[in-house]
Write a structure and sequence with these properties.
The chain has about 140 residues and is an alpha/beta fold. It contains six helices and six strands; from the N terminus they run βααβααβααβββ.
């Protein structure tokens, strides 16, 4: 069990709750479940939780079930959107030539002091100023 701080991107959480995602659902479910047993709970951002909520609602998951799930994830280390995060996201977008939304995810992971950013959307192995992207769905 690793004691590295991990930041979890939206897509990993969505797959962990989307029964229609097949193998990705099973894999994501297992890796997200394992995060609850780590010595350091993972980090997410308000942005991640907002995207998670909206996307599961779009998949016709009952709103009250999604709210309950979001409340559970609020037990993790939650990075809040603020002016410092906004400025860091803009800086990273310019420096790294990535989308603004991805830059905010990286900025949140940096704010959380995460060593790993679990995501399927960013390039596995990519090092963003000390935060390395890991795709836990394709180990």
């Amino acid at each position: 069990m690793s004691d590295k701080q991990v930041f979890v991107d939206t897509n990993i959480l969505i797959y962990a709750h989307d029964r229609d995602a097949g193998d990705k659902y099973r894999t994501a479910r297992a890796v997200v479940e394992s995060l609850w047993h780590r010595p350091i709970l993972p980090s997410v951002s308000i942005q991640v939780l907002q995207e998670f909520y909206v996307n599961l609602i779009r998949k016709n998951v009952k709103a009250s079930d999604v709210r309950d799930t979001v409340v559970n994830y609020l037990e993790w280390d939650v990075i809040h959107n603020d002016r410092k995060l906004l400025l860091e996201g803009m800086r990273l977008q310019d420096k790294l030539s990535i989308s603004f939304w991805d830059a905010l995810i990286v900025a949140s992971a940096k704010t959380a002091k995460a060593k790993e950013l679990w995501s399927e959307d960013l390039n596995p192995g990519q090092n963003y100023e000390g935060v390395v992207v890991v795709n836990p769905l394709n180990p």
